[in-house]
Amino acid sequence: MRRDTATAPPLSVEEARARILANLMPVEDTELLRLSAASGRVLAADLSAREPVPGFANSAMDGYALAAHSLPQSGERHLRVIGKSLAGHPHTGTVGADECVRIMTGAMLPPGCDTVIMQEEVRTAGEEIVIGAGHRAGENVRLPGGDIPGGSRVLSGGRRLRPADLGVIASLGLAQVQVRRRVRVAVFGTGDELREPGTPLAPGQIYERNRYTLGASLANLGAEVRDLGIVPDEPAAIRAAMHQTMQADAVLTSGGVSVGDTDYVRQILGELGEVRFWRVAMKPGKPLAFGRLGRAWFFGLPGNPVSALVTFQLFVAPALRALAGEAYREPLTLRARTLGAFDKRPGRAEFARGMLRREAGAWLVETAGSQDSSALSSMSRADCLILLPAAAATVPAGSEVEVMPLDALP
Length: 410
Ligand code: AMP
Ligand code: MG
Hints:
- This protein is of the alpha/beta class and about 400 residues long.
- The protein has helices at about 5, 15-20, 165-170, 210-220, 235-245, 265-270, 305-325, 375-380; strands at about 30-35, 45-50, 60, 65, 75-85, 100-105, 115-120, 120-125, 130, 140, 155, 175-180, 185-190, 195, 205, 225-230, 250-255, 275-280, 280-285, 285-295, 295-300, 335-340, 350-360, 360-365, 385-390, 400-405.
- The chain folds into four domains: about 15-30 and about 180-325, MoaB/Mog-like domain (Molybdenum Cofactor Biosythetic Enzyme, Chain A, 3-Layer(aba) Sandwich), CATH 3.40.980.10; about 30-50 and about 155-180, Molybdopterin biosynthesis moea protein, domain 2 (Alpha-Beta Complex); about 60-140, Molybdopterin biosynthesis moea protein, domain 3 (Molybdopterin biosynthesis moeA protein, domain 3); about 335-410, Beta-clip, CATH 2.40.340.
- α2 (about 15-20) packs parallel to α7 (about 305-325) and α4 (about 210-220) packs parallel to α7.
- The two termini are about 30 Å apart.
- The chain binds adenosine monophosphate and magnesium ion.
- Adenosine monophosphate (AMP) binds near residues 193, 206 and 302.
């Protein structure tokens, strides 16, 4: 390990995130996917519309298609219904003055028509309809290109595809889409005390949690996970695990990055790779080793389960999004009023687990329970993190704070 990182003071959260994001380059390889398999993947390049959408003028309503000059200026006018245009079955003949065509939503406007009158707004009289005054030329018509003009850019490269995006791509007639490959992430936990759920515990042992919380978080981000299991607190075992991860895009470990007697991860990262920083002035989550291991970016997350999850969300998730090629976006936050006090000391940013509720048009936030870094149940209960800035001391009840909804985190 380099001397300067060993003694450097903890970084602020913003500085740490900026340093992480500064050097990340998106994975370059792309793959062509069927549209139905592309949800949540990151678009490799801009997508433009060759043709306009819709491709032809069509009706927005069930009713009657006609030419605007057949509309009465005042009083009523009788028009003869000369045919039908159904969705997928256009009426091909021309429609003249004093004529109209029965038309359904999505059906093509017949030649000579530019206006649709809703069926609720006409009377039928045998072969004819009767229309009153007050209609507008062009009403209830969807014009070609009204949704997407031909030649326009529809989606930008770096977009993580959402359901509506897939529909937009389908509307262009594209069956496949070029996306960046998934980010490959290797994960292992460290700790002699850790056992897999489903096995008995000896005295002093606990069940492993972090590979479950991190694995699920990685799955939500669409990463390809290689799980190396639990590695004991032995330098040789940690070295061996690290050797296996050097080809990944990112490596996540949990535990063993602090200053305890068996915390070897940082030291071995320094031997086999490079430690860029390892402390952030925050709670939960102070020890967070960031560096380089082979061609991978290395995140040595703290062992405490809440710390591991919070540092994942604040630092690893934005990094993985950047590696995936996604454009960076600040996390969404909202303002809320605290229902109780939050103990805090100045000098480090704190991320308290909170529960939001809406009352009389305002967001209120209360503690989700224990703020101990090992208490996962309050993380499970929480629906937001309350952002208590580094400079702040204890935040009294009734204060306005910024909160980050947990399901809106990047
Ligand atoms: P460490 O950072 O290794 O000192 O771990 C800090 C605390 O987190 C200790 O109480 C560990 O037992 C606990 N811990 C570490 N890794 C895990 C894990 N994967 N699952 C649950 N607890 C863990
Ligand atoms: Mg440990």
